[in-house]
Amino acid sequence: MVDVEFERRKQEILDECKIAPQVLDGLLPRLEKFMDPFVESLVRSEQVTHAQTFVQGLLSDLKNKNVESIAYRFGQERMPLQWFVGVSNWDHEPLRDRLVLQVAENLGDDDGVLVFDPSGFSKSGRESVGVARQWCGRHGKVDNCQVAIYMGYVSRHEHALVDVRLFLPKEWTSDKQRCKKAGVPKGTRYRTRHQLCLEMLKAHGDVLPHSWITGDDEMGRPYWFRRRLARLDERYLLAVPSNTLIRDLEVAPPSYSGVGPHPKRPWRRVDKWTKGQRNNKWTKIDVPDGAKGPLVVEAIKTRVVARTDKRQEGHEETLVVIRFRDRENKTVQTDYYLSNAHAATKLWVFARAAKAEHRIEECIQRSKSEAGLADYEVRNWKGWHHHQILSLIATWFLVTEAQRGKTIDTGNHRSTNPRNHLFDPQPCIRMRYNLPNSSRTGTAADPKRACSPVSLEAA
After folding, report:
1. How many CA atoms lie within 13 A of 47 on its CB side?
2. What average pLDDT does this structure show over 404-430?
3. What are the pLDDT digits (tens) for 205-236?
């Protein structure tokens, strides 16, 4: 049976998505002006022209947004543009730093969220820089691919990708001849995906105001990464796999027999712990309807210590479990998170940060579908980074254009000073999730609820 109210609200949202013709007036002149700060570091006039042409091509309606297709679209020879992207000796880092500054100026909020997420690019050969048989989250299996680690920024205003690092497996960093052939800078050492995240945090953390660090279960799995963030005074909410072992500190330990050491609480998997929670422990959180209909979101938390890779107890953390039910009260997804936030942090605050973690998936998908992020045909280190930064800039232009088409608050934004961890921000961002996520799906308890709903709507 069709939910009449849901269909009515869905149609209202679709009507709001229609773009007025005047929004597109002067689009190309605005793009040229938009590109001016980014091309300041390019020393030759033809480089500036090629950069503008390539970004226009990335934003066009071409099916395959590679160098050859873009050159032919603008009636140009392929080789000069191909040389600019794949070989020309210009540094992508000044363009990246300019992008970070613009995102901070336009989207910056003290309650912003930094999100890290790896994304794989399938490859058939072995010559492209960084390609190897490795875990590809996009396919959910080990595959022949390149893996990039993206850093996104999410605030109440919008969300955007701001930086990227290419992961080089050990088989690459230990083969100097292979690295030299692919143009990898001399002296590049092996760094884990999490170390690459810490590099980006160190480079941009003081520029982008934020109160949370989030990431998927690949980011949250290793204990050392969570511990490092805690020591850096960063407040995190990181997803973890369903088999993560924890000890519930809010449960009394086994009674002492009087002989030997005092017994400790047993280790339990987070999914097994979740199944054992009574119905009245869950709190319902009001969210807008999902793309496939109404969703019920419930959350629960407890103080825990997690098991480290050395089979020891880690520091105290908060386990946050968020589950989603459809209109038939069937659980369609369960997400598990660990956080170093204060024990008194409200569930809706955790839910807001968890929602931001899902936003980076939207950022990457937007860049791939609308700005040719995955359409590169370069094999070397320099060309890969050139294509990536130009695609991120093109995506950022789409964000700024989307803001032009909205009714934007004209009041003064908060200062873009470094992060503030001393307060819990007001719930100003609606939750929206892309379902399902098979890596975190699990079963849940009885659908009956006894707790009052907590709204995530803006005050």
Report:
1. 17
2. 46
3. 999 999 999 999 999 999 999 999 999 999 99
Query: 3-state DSSP call for residue 172?
Result: helix
Distances (CA, A) of 133 to 146, 170, 314: 9, 11, 32
Interatomic CA distance for residues 177 and 283, integer angstroms? 57
Assess whether pLDDT exceeds 50 at residue 145.
yes
Chain centroid to CA 452: how far? Answer: 31
Burial state string for 243-262 with b = 16 or more CB within 10 A and e = fewer than 16: ebbbbbbeeeeeeeeeeeee
Cα 369 from Cα 373, distance rounded (Å):
8
Pure H helices in 372-432:
381-404
pLDDT at residue number 425: 41
Whether 64 has a pLDDT exceeding 80, the answer reads yes
Max Cα separation, the chain? Answer: 86
Is residue 285 within 8 A of residue 348, CB to CB? The reply is yes
**Per-residue pLDDT, 98:** 97
Element (H, E) at 115: strand 113-122
CB distance 401 to 186 below 8 Å: no
Which residues does 368 contact at the CB level (< 8 Å), separation at least 6?
A: 374
Report how far residue 294's alpha carbon sits from residue 435's, in angstroms, rounded to the nearest whole number.
13
- SS3 state at 303: strand
Measured between alpha carbons, how far is 157 from 208 in angstroms, rounded to an integer? 14
Between residues 416 and 215, the one the model is more confident about:
215
Q: How far is CA 28 from the centre of its chain?
A: 29
Q: Which residue has the higher pLDDT, 327 or 350?
A: 350
Q: Are 237 and 320 in contact (CB under 8 A)?
A: yes
Q: How far is CA 19 from CA 24, 25, 397, in A?
A: 8, 11, 16
- Ranges of beta strands (E only) in 294-453 are 296-307, 313-325, 331-339
The torsion angles phi and psi of 393, rounded to 5 degrees, stand at -65, -40
pLDDT-derived band at 437 (thresholds 50, 70, 90) equals: very low
Question: Is the pLDDT assigned to residue 14 strictly greater than 70?
Answer: no
Both tokens of 321, joined, read 């479990």
Q: Which of 231, 229, 248, 239 is nearest to 336 (CA)?
A: 239
CA atoms in the 13 A half-sphere facing the CB of 272:
10
Per DSSP, what are the bridge partners of residue 40? none
Does residue 83 surpass a pLDDT of 80?
Answer: yes
